[in-house]
Amino acid sequence: MSDTMTAIAIEGGKGPADALVPTTLERPVPGPGEILIKVAAAGVNRPDLIQRLGYYPPPPGAPVTLGLEVAGEVVTGFGRWKAGDKVCALLGGGGYAQYAVVDARHALPVPEGFDFIHAAALPETVFTVYANVFEHGALKVGETLLIHGGTSGIGTTAIAMAKAAGARVIATGRGADKKAKALELGADIAVDTKTEDFAEIARAAGGVDVVLDMVGASYFDKNLHALNIGGRIVYIAALAGPVLEVPIMQIMQKRATITGSTLRPRSADEKARLAAEIERVVWPWIAAGKLRPIIDATFPLEEAAKAHAHLEAGEHVGKVVLVA
Predict the structure, then answer these.
(1) Are strands 107-109 and 69-76 parallel, antiparallel or unpaired?
(2) For residue 228, what is the enclosing H or E element?
(3) Rounded CA gap, 127 and 213, in Å?
(4) Rounded to an integer, what distance in angstroms lies between the CA atom of residue 239 and that of residue 302?
(5) Which of 47, 69, 179, 203 is buried deepest, with most CB atoms within 10 A?
(6) What pTM was computed for the model?
(7) Helix boundaries (H) for the chain
(8) What are phi and psi of 83, to 5 degrees?
(9) Can you give the pLDDT at residue 301?
(10) Residue 1 pLDDT > 90
């Protein structure tokens, strides 16, 4: 095993997609409690795009290299993991590389029947959906979840997880094709936001109990209109406006909760807790065939720039994955 590896750097520290270039770095060495993974595949996520643009720095101690999720084979084990084990893992950074180190508690076994590409598409999205929809949003059996961006990597995963949990799903997307795809993926109702009013459609269908929103301020009024008494709006991004103007009386009347979270800055212990919960709750859904990531496209590691350009174009359905 070489002491060096190929990884993806951001030329100039930040920039457009074509600022991503292959480079040679020293192979990382696992510290106490960490494992070393030979990366076979790495998921590409919107936070990677934001970091590349200079707006989402890695947390203290995390690699500056992009990449929040990987799948591959353990080279140096720790705890439950030994050399040769096939794992997928949630990272603070460093996934766009041939090797990555991670807290052993943040790795999960590759589900039976999954290749590394599908396994690499799990951690970032599954952790995000579980934490925000099921913990912060407290989605329950029989409730209705409204998912904005239903054909995104997060959206497709959220549809499957909500259906596995016994909830009803309304999904939005821009365009008739994305509406049709959301229905194909299991949404009970889908809305083309280019031509339809999602709030009116949701109200006509009985309203919603939880909203998973990555759009932000521009959708807030309609989210609130769609919300049932005691409903929860959960923010995971703000692509169309980061500042809300909140009508307090409406919040009071609906007994609504507005919440949200980020995943990457959470403590190692908190991520370990989430990993254990996800293995307990979500991995059985995978084993039962209720959840399998939708892969839109794969690119060689060296073509990370093309992968970012593809994701930025916004026409993808599901996940984009790099193959090392």
Answers:
(1) unpaired
(2) strand 227-235
(3) 16
(4) 28
(5) 69
(6) 0.97
(7) 46-52, 116-120, 123-129, 153-164, 176-184, 198-204, 220-226, 248-254, 268-287, 304-313
(8) -55, 135
(9) 98
(10) no
